[in-house]
Amino acid sequence: MNPIRHMAIIMDGNGRWGLKHKNSRNLGHREGLKTVEMVIKYCVKKKIKFLTLYAFSTENWKRPLKERSYLFRLLEIYLTEKLEKLNNEKIKIKILGEKKFYNKLNNLLDFAEKKTIRNTKLQINLALNYGSKKEIVYAFNKLNKRSKISENDINKNLYTKNIPDPEILIRTGNTQRLSNFLLWQAAYTEIFFEKKLWPDFKDKDLNKIVKKFSNIKRNFGKI
Q: Is 144 a residue of the active site?
C-alpha cells in the first residue's frame, strides 16, 4: 500500500452548490466547512501528517467584494470558534501565502500559527492569498544572489519548505486543472478529479480515492 504523508485538496464547487440549492454562493461556502471538518477527522484517523487546503487564491481577489468579505469573515469565525479544539487535538496551522487581509484576520492567522506551532499530529496548511507562480517567484527572489541554484535550494525557499510533496491532490467540482496550485510540488503527485461539488464530497468518496491510490504503481520515472 502506498503511504500518504501529505494530501492536498482544491475545494471547488462551493459557490455553484449554493446557487443550486438556495441561490446563494455564500451558503455554499458555509456548507463546505462541513466537508473540511470531515477531511480533517479522516486525516487524523489515518495518521496523514499534512493536509493542504486551497482556500483562497491570488486570482480570487477578482471576485465581488461582498463574496470576498463573507469568505474572510467565515474564516475568522471558524478559527475563533475552533482554534482551541484544534490545538487540544495537537493540530498545527500553517498559512501558505501572503497575509494581506484586514488587521483582525491577519492577527488571528498569526496567532493561530504561533499557538499551534509545536503540534505534531496533523499540520493543516491553509493556502490563502496563494498562487503557485507567485510562490516560485518568491523563492527565486530569496535566492537571487546565488550564481547557481539547485532544485533543493528552491525547495528550501518555497512556502512549503520542510513539508513533503503531496502524494495525492484532489480537486472537486468537475474541473480538470490545477488553477495555479502547488505547481512545483505536484510534479509526481497522483491527481484525482472528482465530479461532485465540494459540499457533496463525503468520506466514502475520499475512501474510494485513497483505495484507488493505494493500488497505483508509483515509478517516479523508473520502470
A: no
User: By residue range, what is the domain housing residue 53?
Assistant: 6-214
SS3 for 93?
strand
Model pTM score: 0.94
Whether 219 sits among the annotated catalytic residues: the reply is no
The active-site residue, picked from 14, 23, 60, 106, is 60
CA–CA separation, 185 and 102 (whole Å): 29
Number of domains in the chain: 1
- Report pLDDT digits (tens) over 34-92: 999 999 999 999 999 999 999 999 999 999 999 999 999 999 999 999 999 999 999 99
| CB-CB contact of 71 with 155 (8 Å) | no
Q: Please give the Cα distance from 1 to 135 (Å, whole number).
A: 32
Residue 176 lies in a domain: yes
CATH number of the domain that residue 88 is part of = 3.40.1180.10
Residue 190 lies in a domain: yes
